[in-house]
Amino acid sequence: MDAMVEAAVACMYERFGDPLTVADIARNAGLGLFDFSRLFKEETGVSPGKFLDAVRIGEAKKLLDSTSMSITEIARAAGYDGLDSFADAFMAGVGLSPGRYRRLCRGEGEVPPGPRPGPAPLHGSVAGTVSLPGGHGNARVFVGAFATALLAYPALASAVLDVPGDRPICYSLPGVPEGRWHLRAVAVAAGTGHDPQAVRTALLGGAAAAVTVTAGAVTSAAVRLRAARRADPPVLLALPSLEPPAAVVPHPGCAAAADPTGPGGAGGAGRLRVVPAAPARSGA
């Protein structure tokens, strides 16, 4: 990661509550606005303006989850000069209003928003493998297709998968509209020590490049996860619980795909979908 971009990201996290602009950040970096914006997007995958907006919404999500501050107070703390502008931005990125998101965090009967297929009348599928970095136990992984590199509402298609720590598994996203989309993933992984469930690591990742979906066809794309970094744009979309499973027991030749409405998800009767599994690596 470029040191100038790292400094810019740090500035956003330190001053997100101020009336900070991208021009201010570029000026602090000693670059013109165009050169700074180009470099920032090359390094992070999103424009500095979208990244700053994501930081503000991401910090607001934390405050809604962990404090009793009013929504008006949180809007102000997150750098918004009005409740309406905050509510609109929050809804656009998270898929729930601030009040509904707080109820989701408190387990008060709210459910995460589902995928929204989009306007394209023709659809294809995306499929491939999901793999974890070494040194982690089992993980629960959310995989989705998005219009931008941000993990923000809406997902065009999504799945929640239980991935064993010792091998990749296959995923399949049917019903993806024709077009070019970003395949993004977020996970929580258990550890590998004597008490794996006592350790939690946030992972992020996706496909190496945007994928092109063609009607009636399957596009292949590998999803690789890694440890989350500070320079990653915050995850905005309200997700189901990603509590890593103690064990993954797939059907022979298949891998378990956790139903986000089941146990560990948003509530409801637990069910498992089944998708073909990747073969185990040699020695796994």
SSE arrangement, N to C: HHHHHHHEEEEEEEEEEE
For the largest beta-sheet, the strand count, sense and barrel status come to: 9 strands, mixed
Which spans of ≥5 residues are poorly predicted at pLDDT below 50? Answer: 259-284
How many beta-strand elements? 11
Structural class: alpha+beta
Fraction in beta strands: 25-35%
Distance between the amino and carboxyl termini? 33 Å
Instruction: Report helical residue fraction.
Output: 25-40%
Rough shape? globular
**Overall pLDDT level:** 86
What integer value in Å does the Rg equal? 19 Å
Number of helices: 7
Write up what this structure looks like:
It contains seven helices and eleven strands. The protein is α+β, with helices and mostly antiparallel strands and 284 residues long. The strands form two sheets. Strands 1, 2, 3, 4, 5, 6, 7, 8 and 9 form a nine-stranded mixed β-sheet that branches. The two termini are 33 Å apart. The relative contact order is 0.15. The model is unreliable at 259-284 (pLDDT under 50).
